[in-house]
Each structure stands twice: as structure tokens, then as C-alpha cells.
Design goal:
Helix content is about 65%, strand content about 0%. It has a domain of about 60 residues. It has about 950 residues and is mainly α. GO terms for molecular function: oxidoreductase activity. InterPro entries: ARM-like, ARM-type_fold, HEAT_type_2, PBS_lyase_HEAT. Pfam families: HEAT_2.
């Protein structure tokens, strides 16, 4: 009768009879096997409310058997109801189905009920509730649950302590609080081995977060536990914590444990050593693992082989390689597999004929996992393994019944280099591209990526075109990359059409690879559709896609700004999508003058009145990037209109663009609009307007402009003030009116360092016209400013004012800076003195310069020599000549050359016998620049230096360093 007999009464009767009769059990199974329908599940749900505990208990057992079909809200409610059942056994049963039936049941209501059950008076209920919470994992890891489980770890019942510890472990990182770790540490000392083992297991799942000194000490203690299970678990936990716990004490304990009497302990210890990696690859560890590779237990041999592999080349001794070669022939498949992996990870050190022969044998193993790992190992060995026999075995394995083996063939071919790149190998990969297994197809496409142009055959391109449409995202992504690596051969219309599809793929990696490929194909990939896709991608939600699309745009336009590219972008400027229009405008701007055709300029002018403000902003910026070439009347009119735009960003970019066009944009209308904008309420607009006026330069030097900028230097915004001073400086001497000078004087005490520096810079550019006594006094004051940049600009301004600034007060202030700690300040002071020429050649200045010739800073020494050079004959004292002679012997060629130049400027006055002898000696210097400076100095000394030895030295000198006709002495 089967499911037709599944009434409530029948099911209750069968559940009741199940205890006594196997026929009743059989009848139930037949009913449920044929039709575990909603009706049957409903009948069982009714049965768990039966007054008979045995019926209820049997109903739970049957529900567990039908777990997958039983996960409905109705069932959750039923189980929740039973949590409060008076029958203790039934309460326990009620929490057990959560592992199978209620995987998705971690609702607040369920968790709250289980929390109550963790406090139940019956130990079985507490145990089962803790277990159920653990099975919910991280979903149940609330503060309340963790607190309840921490309490349960201290329960009087060992089973409860055990399940609570395990539950905390299953919650992983989320449960790794200080309180939990402290409770688990306590449990590690419990009298019951199961509790100690589960506490260790919990710490293992918490990983590195639990790797405190106290935990490590407890685990080191646990590895000496009398119970093998506890020792084994402790080693597993130490292994999971990795390098962090690799202390000498831990390593010694692990080495010892590899010889433990219990096979599980030896296995766990070997595994732990492997997880600690190269850091623990000492001779003692390698010797212990070498022993373990020959262990009687297969699991130990397996984990020891694996551990040696994880330690890499460090373990590749002859003994280890011999032991692993033996293990490749082990009776246990797992051992053979891990030995193959280990040999592969040892790289070239293990690339002997014996190893290759053993692996070649292993690729014919009856176990698929062994075959697969052997192929991977051969791939890791690389070209050395690409013998005819190995390549033949690889080609044969393309037809292996196991998908994992077939996928490892592609990996091996990819890594064996050119030797394995035969037509047969490419044909095998093409075969693999059509494999039913997704991993095989993916590995084959990766292999083709690395073969690049060598695999660029029509059949391969067709296969990759198919793969770009594969159902698997990884295959689609690597197929796109493979097409990119094949270069121009793959730049067909079909490929570009397929890539256009791929850049719209739902998977970000596929989109990213497709854009990368388009970049590799370059200008040949330029179609309207591709350009729009590239421009659109700049707003992709995935950062990598945006980057690859931007890179592709750059590569396409770098290779060739062709008419086709420009036409495609022009079309995009008219696209219906504002994002595409803005990106197209921006891209045209990045091409600069190359793209500044009449059509492009007209399209960008049109875009300046686009309905979208961002498009307007991009169009304005693009015109600015094209510079003066785009400074047509139509463009200027559009920009003047844009400076009145209601959007601050559009106004700002219009000003910036006008500034970039420079003097070409200096029409009366433009200047008037900029003057107007200096008073706008938006500080960004005001600063941009000032900057634009500065870039227009002297052409904008009208009274109205100067008045507007004078006003702006009193602006409340620091940046506006600085830009106004910058603009006045660029206008130059024409701006040096009394009002401007007064404003500059005022700016000397501005609170903003940058504003002060820009004011001094402007003064420097106005030159002598601005050199009033008040300003000079202010500049002298500024050389003591706390800001280095301000001091630097003040020195520069003093220098540029030239002779007018060479007052006793200025000179005294500059000499005073000799005591400044900052070498940059000292060098700037000498530079300023040098610009004052002979006017600064006073005794105290010369004394200061002489002092500076032995300064620890090379730049200061050079600037001091330069200043002496500027002062010429007026600075020619015996002390100066001796100092310059000393500098000439300096190791620094630049110092020496400065000294030679200074001596040259001093002319005949410096032409002493000692000096001429030193200069003749310097003509033999290996540095040609020094030779050139010396010959210049001798030339400037005139007839006094026209001696035979000088002439001989000059004739011997390199022709690069001397033009004989320049020197007056040669007349003699």
C-alpha cells in the first residue's frame, strides 16, 4: 500500500511498534522511501507531540532520516515546541535534529531557545543544546551565546564541558575573546581527556588569534599528556598556529613526538612541522621527518612526505630525495601522492634523472590522485622534465578518465617551456578546451595564455573564441587573456566582437581580462562599440575593471591617435549616456594637441552647453588640455559664458582653461569676465580667476586688473590671497604701483606661510621698481622667518632687487645668516650677495665668504665661491686667493670648478706664481669640466698667465675643454 497508508494513525502505530518489531521499522522505511511527502512530514510532526515518549522519540529519529526534506518553518516550530517538553530524553532529542534538519535555522528565536536549554537541569539537554549551537557555527556566535558556552565549559558534567568547548571551536575567530581563551585554558587542565581534547580542538579552530604565550605553554604541556588523543590534538593545534609558535621548545617537542608510540600523535606532529614551513627546516627536523617517511603507519608516511614538501628546497638533500623516491613507490596511494608533491616543490635541486623516471612511472599509477600529483610535480620541475617520454605521457593523459589528471596535464605543459610546445601539445590543449570538466577547460586556457604568440593558430583562436562564451567565468577570463597574448594575429573582427561581449560580462574578472586584451590588441581594436565600452567602464563598480579599462584606453591612444580613434570618440561625445559623453570629452583632452582638429573643438564647444554639468566640466577641461591650439574665438566665447555658469565646478574649469590658453585668450571680454570673477562669492572661482589673470601675464596689466588683484590680496581666503600675489608677480614691474607695494608690505605679516612666500616671490619679480626702503627692511626681517620656504623667497627677492638692495643694513642681515643652522638658508644668503656684484664686496662680506669656503655643506661652499666670482677683482685679497687654492684641491669637482671660475673673474690680480702653478696642475684633472673651468680661468688672467708651461698645458688639454681662440694670452 505504501504512501497511501500514511495516515496519522498508521504512522503513530508504526512508530509505537517500532521498538518491538523490525517489520514495523521496515514498513516505515518503505513508506518514506517511496514518498517522503509533505503529508508524511506533517504526520511525523504530529507524532512528535504524541503523549507517548516512545512515539515522540521514534518520530525524531525518522525526522533525522528525512533531514533534507524536513527543513521548513513548520518543522522548526515543532522542534522549538519540544524544547520545553517535560520528558528530559525528549528535550535532548529535540536539540539533536538541529545539525541535520535545521542548518538554516539560526534565527533569534531558535538561538534564544537553545540558550535556555544550555541552562537546563538535565545534563543531556545541556550537552545537546551546546552541540546544536556549535553546529550553527558563526551564525550563532552572539555575545550571549559565547557567554553561555563559556559558562558551560565549567559545567559539572564532562559531556557538557566537552560539547561546549567543541561548540566554541566551531565558531572560530568570532569566539576568540580573552574570556573564551581563559576558559579553554582552564579546560586544558580538566581531569577528563575528552574535555582536554575538545578544548585543544577549539583553540585549533581559533588559529593565530589564540596563539598567546599562555596558550602555547598549555599546548606544549599537552603534548606530554598521557592520552594519545590529547597529544595528537595539541600537535594539530600548534600546527594550525604556524610559524608564530615555532619556538625552540615547540620544535623540540614536535621532533620528539615524531617518535611517539601512538601513530596518530606521530602523524599530527609531522603535519604540524609541515605547517610551520621553512622556518623549522633544521637538520634535526629533517632527520626526524626522514625517519617518519619510513614509518610503519601510512598516515605518518603521508604527513611526513607532505611536511618535507612544504619546507621546499631547504630539505632537498640526497637522503631526503632518495627517501621520497622510495615513497613514490609506496603501497599506499596517499603516500605516493604526497611524495610526488614534495619532489615537485623541491624544484631544480630534485630535478635528477632518477626523480624524473620515478615521476614518469607515477603518472601511470592506478590511483588518479597519484597520477595527477606526479604530472604537477613534473610541471614544477620545468624544462628539465620535458623529455620525449614525459611529453608522450602527457599527451596520452589528455584522455585520462579522471578530470583532475587531465587538468594537471595542462599545468605541466604550460610550465615545461618551449620544449613541450609542440603541435601535438597545442592540439592536446585544444582538445582540453572542449572537455566536459570546467577545471580542465580552465587549466588548458591558462596554458594557452602563457604560450602566447606561439599558439596563435586559427584553430586555437576559434577555440578561444568559443571559450570566451564558456559557462564558467574563470574559463572566460583566461580565454580573453590568451587572445591578448597572441598579439595582432588575434585582432580579427570576430575576436573584437567577442571581447565587446566579454566587457559586458556579469563577472568582474572576465570584464577586467577583456579590457586587458583590448589594450594589448591596441589601435586595431578601435570600434565605436569598444570606445563606448571603455568609456563606460570608468564607472564600473569594480576597481580592477576601471583600472584595466583606463590602461587599455592609454595603450590604444599611446600607440596611435588615428582618425578612426578620434572619429569614434567624436561619436561618443554625442552618446545618449552622459557618463560616456563626459569620458569621451576627458579622453580627447588627454590626447592634447594631437586631437585638436576643428571637428573636435566644435564638438567640445557644443558639449560646453550640455544639459549635464559634469559633461560641461569635462569639455572645458579638455579644451584647456589642448592649449593655445584650441584658443579660437568660438571657444573663448563659450568659456566666457561658462564663467557665469551656476555650477561652481564648471566656472572653475572655465577659468583654468582660459589661464592655460594664456595670452591668446586675452581679449577685452575675457579680461572683463575674469576681473568680475575675482569678486565671486565662491573662493575656488576667485582663486581660479586670479590664476587665469596671472597666466595671461602683461597683456592683462590694465589698471582694472591690478586694482582687482590688489583687492584680492586682502581676501579672507588664504588660497585666493596667494593666487592674487602670484598673478601680480607674473604681471611684473607694471604691477609695482604704490597700492600694490603697500599690500605687499602688509602681506609680510600674513598668518599664512604660503601667502607670505608668494608675496616675496611677487616682490622678486617686480625687481628694482619695488625696492623701497620699507620693503627692503621687511625683506631683511623675513630672512629670519620661521618658515624655510618664506626665507628662501625673501633671499631670492633681495637678490633680484639688485644694486638698489645692496644697503649696509641688507648686507649686514645677510652676513648675519652665517650663524643659521640651516645650510639652505646660508647658501641662499650667499646667492643673494652674489647678485649684488661689486656693491657687496665689503671687508665683512669677504671675511664671511672666506669663512664659508670651509663650510661642511658643499652647496654653501659653491655659493660662496660664486659670490666671490660675482665680486670680481674687488674681492681679490691674498686670503681669498689662498682659500680658493684650497678649494681647488677639494675632492668635490663642483667645488673646484666654482673656485676656478671665481679666480678667472679676478683676472690678472689673481695671477700669482703659486696660483698659475696650481692651475697648470689642475689641467691634468681627469674631469673634463674641471679642465674647462681651469682653461677659462687662465684665459681671464690675460697676458700675466701667458707662460710656456701654461701654453703647453693648454695645448695638451682635451679639445672638448678648450677653444684656443678665446684666450687673450695666446696672442703672445
Amino acid at each position: 500500500m505504501g504512501e497511501k497508508a500514511a495516515t496519522n494513525d498508521v504512522i503513530v502505530a508504526l512508530l509505537n511498534a517500532k521498538r518491538y518489531s523490525w517489520e514495523a521499522s521496515l514498513a516505515l522505511r518503505k513508506i518514506f522511501e517511496k514518498a517522503p511527502t509533505n503529508e508524511i512530514i506533517a504526520a511525523l510532526l504530529n507524532a512528535i507531540r504524541d503523549e507517548d515518549a516512545n512515539v515522540r522519540s521514534s518520530a525524531f529519529q525518522e525526522l533525522q532520516a528525512l533531514a533534507k526534506k524536513a527543513a521548513t518553518n513548520e518543522k522548526i516550530a515543532a522542534v522549538l515546541n519540544e524544547m520545553s517538553d517535560e520528558d528530559a530524553i525528549l528535550g535532548c532529542r529535540a536539540s539533536q535534529p538541529f545539525e541535520e534538519i535545521l542548518e538554516e535555522a539560526a534565527t533569534n528565536e531558535v538561538i534564544a531557545t537553545l540558550l535556555n536549554a544550555v541552562l537546563d537541569e538535565d545534563a543531556n539537554v545541556r550537552h545537546s543544546a551546546s552541540e546544536a549551537l556549535g553546529n550553527m557555527g558563526e551564525k550563532a556566535a552572539t555575545n550571549e551565546v559565547i557567554a553561555a558556552l563559556v559558562n558551560a565549559v565549567r559545567d559539572e558534567d564532562a559531556n557538557v564541558r566537552h560539547s561546549a568547548s567543541e561548540a566554541l571551536g566551531k565558531m572560530g575567530d568570532k569566539a576568540a575573546t580573552n574570556e573564551v581563551i581563559a576558559a579553554l585554558l582552564n579546560a586544558m587542565r580538566n581531569e577528563y581527556a575528552t574535555v582536554r581534547r575538545s578544548a585543544s580542538f577549539a583553540l585549533e579552530n581559533m588559529g593565530k588569534k589564540a596563539a598567546t604565550n599562555e596558550v602555547i605553554a598549555a599546548l606544549v604541556n599537552a603534548v606530554r599528556d598521557e592520552h594519545a588523543d590529547v597529544r595528537s590534538s595539541a600537535f594539530q593545534t600548534l600546527g594550525k598556529m604556524g610559524e608564530k609558535v615555532a619556538t625552540n621548545e615547540v620544535i623540540a617537542a614536535l621532533v620528539n613526538a615524531v617518535l611517539d608510540e601512538d601513530a596518530n600523535v606521530r602523524h599530527s606532529a609531522s603535519e604540524a612541522l609541515g605547517n610551520m614551513g621553512e622556518k623549522v627546516a633544521t637538520n634535526e627536523v629533517i632527520a626526524a621527518l626522514l625517519n617518519a617517511v619510513r614509518d610503519e603507519d601510512a598516515n605518518v608516511r603521508h604527513s611526513a612526505s607532505k611536511a618535507l614538501g612544504k619546507m621546499g628546497e631547504k630539505t632537498a638533500t640526497n637522503e631526503v630525495v632518495a627517501a621520497l623516491l622510495n615513497a613514490v613507490r609506496d603501497e599506499d596511494a596517499n603516500v605516493r601522492s604526497s611524495a610526488s608533491i614534495a619532489l615537485g616543490k623541491m624544484g631544480q635541486k630534485a630535478a635528477t634523472n632518477e626523480v624524473i623516471a620515478a615521476l614518469l612511472n607515477a603518472v601511470r599509477d592506478e590511483d588518479a590522485n597519484v597520477r595527477s600529483e606526479a604530472f604537477e610535480a613534473l610541471g614544477k620541475i620545468g624544462e628539465k622534465a620535458a623529455t620525449n617520454e614525459v611529453v608522450a605521457a602527457l599527451l596520452n593523459a589528455v584522455r585520462d578518465e579522471d578530470a583532475y589528471v587531465r587538468s594537471s596535464v595542462s599545468f605541466a605543459l604550460e610550465n615545461m617551456g618551449e620544449k613541450a610546445m609542440t603541435n601535438e601539445a597545442i592540439a592536446a590543449l585544444l582538445n582540453a578546451m572542449c572537455d566536459e570538466d570546467v577545471d580542465v577547460r580552465w587549466k588548458a586556457s591558462i596554458a594557452l595564455v602563457n604560450m602566447g604568440k606561439k599558439a596563435a593558430k586559427n584553430e586555437v583562436i576559434i577555440a578561444l573564441l568559443n571559450a570566451v562564451r564558456d559557462e564558467d567565468a574563470n574559463v572566460r577570463s583566461s580565454a580573453s587573456k590568451a587572445l591578448g597574448n597572441m598579439g595582432e594575429k588575434a585582432a580579427t573582427n570576430e575576436v573584437i566582437a567577442a571581447l565587446l561581449n566579454a566587457v559586458r560580462d556579469e563577472d568582474a574578472n572576465v570584464r577586467s581580462s577583456a579590457f586587458e586584451t583590448l589594450g594589448e590588441i591596441g589601435e586595431k581594436a578601435v570600434t565605436n562599440g569598444i570606445i563606448v565600452a571603455l568609456l563606460n567602464a570608468e564607472r564600473d563598480e569594480n576597481a580592477n575593471v576601471r583600472w584595466k579599462a583606463s590602461e587599455a584606453l592609454g595603450k590604444i591612444f599611446e600607440k596611435a591617435v588615428t582618425n578612426e580613434v578620434i572619429v569614434a570618440l567624436l561619436n561618443a561625445v554625442c552618446n545618449e549616456d552622459p557618463n560616456v559623453r563626459s569620458s569621451a570629452s576627458e579622453t580627447l583632452g588627454k590626447m592634447g594637441e594631437k586631437a585638436a582638429t576643428n571637428e573636435v573643438i566644435a564638438a567640445l564647444v557644443n558639449a560646453m552647453s550640455d544639459e549635464d554639468e559634469f559633461v560641461q566640466w569635462c569639455a572645458s577641461r579638455a579644451l584647456g588640455m589642448m592649449g593655445e591650439k584650441a584658443a579660437t574665438n568660438e571657444v573663448i566665447v563659450a568659456l566666457v559664458n561658462a564663467v557665469c555658469n551656476e555650477d561652481a565646478n564648471v566656472r572653475s574649469s572655465a577659468f583654468e582653461t582660459l589661464g592655460k590658453m594664456g595670452e591668446k585668450a586675452a581679449t577685452n571680454e575675457v579680461v572683463a569676465a575674469l576681473v568680475n570673477a575675482v569678486c565671486y562669492e565662491d573662493p575656488i572661482v576667485r582663486s581660479e580667476a586670479c590664476e587665469a589673470l596671472g597666466k595671461i601675464g602683461e597683456k592683462a596689466a590694465t589698471n582694472e586688473v591690478i586694482a582687482a588683484l590688489t583687492n584680492a590680496v586682502r581676501d579672507e581666503d588664504d588660497y585666493v590671497r596667494s593666487k592674487a600675489f602670484e598673478a601680480l608677480g607674473k604681471i611684473g614691474e607694471k604691477a609695482a604701483t604704490n597700492e600694490v607695494i603697500a599690500a605687499l608690505l602688509n602681506a609680510m605679516s600674513d598668518e599664512d606661510d604660503y601667502v607670505r612666500s608668494k608675496a616675496f616671490e611677487a616682490l622678486g619679480k617686480m625687481g628694482e621698481k619695488a625696492a623701497t626702503n620699507e620693503l627692503i627692511a621687511a625683506l631683511v626681517n623675513a630672512v629670519r622667518d620661521e618658515d624655510e620656504y618664506v626665507r628662501s623667497k625673501a633671499f631670492k627677492a633681495l637678490g633680484k632687487m639688485g644694486e638698489k638692495a645692496a644697503t649696509n643694513e641688507v648686507i649686514a642681515a645677510l652676513v648675519n645668516t652665517m650663524r643659521f643652522e640651516d645650510a639652505n638658508v646660508r647658501s641662499k644668503a650667499f646667492e643673494a650677495l652674489g647678485k649684488m656684484d661689486e656693491r657687496a664686496a665689503k671687508n665683512e662680506v669677504i671675511a664671511a665668504l672666506l669663512n664659508a669656503m670651509s663650510d661642511e655643506d658643499a652647496n654653501v661652499r659653491r655659493k660662496a665661491s660664486g659670490a666671490l666670482k660675482s665680486m670680481g677683482e674687488k674681492a681679490t685679497t691674498n686670503e681669498v686667493i689662498v682659500a680658493l687654492l684650497n678649494v681647488m684641491c677639494d675632492e668635490d669637482a663642483n667645488d673646484g670648478s666654482s673656485a676656478f671660475e671665481a679666480l678667472g673673474k679676478m683676472g690678472g690680480k689673481a695671477a700669482t706664481n703659486q696660483m698659475i702653478a696650481a692651475l697648470v696642475n689642475a689641467m691634468r684633472d681627469e674631469d673634463e669640466f674641471v679642465q674647462w673651468c681651469v682653461s677659462q680661468a687662465l684665459g681671464m688672467m690675460g697676458g700675466k698667465a701667458g707662460r710656456n708651461e701654461v701654453v703647453a698645458a693648454l695645448l695638451n688639454a682635451s679639445t672638448d675643454s678648450l677653444v684656443l681662440a678665446e684666450y687673450p694670452m695666446m696672442e703672445r
